[in-house]
Design a protein that fits this description.
With about 250 residues, the protein is mainly alpha-helical. The protein has one domain (about 5-245). It contains 12 helices and 5 strands. It has helices at about 10-15, 20-25, 35-40, 50-65, 75-80, 95-100, 105-140, 145-165, 175-185, 185-200, 210-215, 230-240; strands at about 5, 30, 65-70, 225, 245. A 5-stranded parallel beta sheet has the order 3-2-1-4-5. Strand 4 (about 225), helix 12 (about 230-240) and strand 5 form a beta-alpha-beta unit. The two termini are about 25 Å apart.
């Protein structure tokens, strides 16, 4: 096990004392740029008690997370697979200190929230379009509930979104790059395919945090673990037979 990539809610649970501090201390916990972004835009910061929790969470992260990935998800894939870097898709860990000090101007807050809304809207639009396309494709090929078609869709959409979001051309990347995408990001693309499956066949409704949950899985490499308490995602990951990626600790009840 190289690193433990954490769902942002895990950090809140740690701050609320739901896990034994002694069992967590020394674990190879990894903070991600997406975790930081969630801490920045959370509605919790709008109330006095919520703000205290977010500040406590940031302080604990500074103590407990020896690893940090500064890239946003698509930039992370791009840097690993296509060796293309886009500087403005990096998030500084210094934002934790800014949250603790409440050191944000109104312009900063507006920029952060506009960026979040744009990302959320694009994600929802992509899911709606792809769900419709998947239904048509599966019916056309008479291969109802064929997960392989949905895996292909997840990979294709990821490549297209990377090109669009980072404004880079990866349309002519060779088969080795595509195979690396498959090898390095298995948890992410299989979870995305499972999300497509549920949207296509089970009238599944996308939750407000599903985008962050899914995109945070981008950071989980072949030898990493993913720590989340969300039973919904546990079910999707178990259904694909890749439960070895999951990390867990017993919670105080």
């Amino acid at each position: 096990m190289n690193r433990i990539i954490t769902d942002t809610n895990i950090w809140y649970n740690i701050a609320e004392g739901k896990y034994s501090y002694n069992r967590i201390k020394g674990l190879p916990l990894c903070l991600t740029a997406l975790n930081v972004m969630e801490l920045l835009i959370t509605p919790k910061r709008k109330t006095s008690e919520g703000k205290k929790l977010v500040i406590k969470t940031c302080k604990l992260i500074q103590k407990l997370a020896p690893y940090y990935i500064k890239y946003l998800p698509y930039q992370y894939i791009s840097s690993k697979v296509y060796h293309k870097h886009v500087k403005h898709h990096q998030v500084s860990k210094d934002y934790l200190s800014k949250i603790i000090k409440d050191d944000f101007s109104a312009d900063n807050e507006k920029l952060i929230n506009e960026g979040y809304k744009s990302m959320k809207d694009k994600f929802k639009s992509t899911l709606d379009e792809q769900t419709k396309a998947n239904r048509e494709d599966l019916l056309l090929k008479k291969q109802l509930k064929d997960i392989n078609i949905l895996v292909t869709s997840a990979l294709k959409d990821t490549r297209q979104e990377i090109g669009r979001e980072l404004n880079i051309d990866i349309s002519h990347e060779d088969i080795l790059a595509n195979q690396k995408l498959i090898d390095e990001f298995k948890l992410y693309y299989l979870s995305r395919a499972t999300l497509y499956y549920n949207l296509t066949f089970n009238d599944f409704m996308v939750g407000k945090n599903d985008q962050f949950d899914l995109m945070n899985m981008v950071y989980v490499g072949p030898s990493d673990k993913y720590w989340s308490d969300d039973e919904k995602w546990h079910g999707k990951i178990n259904w694909q037979g890749i439960e070895d990626y999951l990390f867990s600790l017993p919670m105080y009840r």
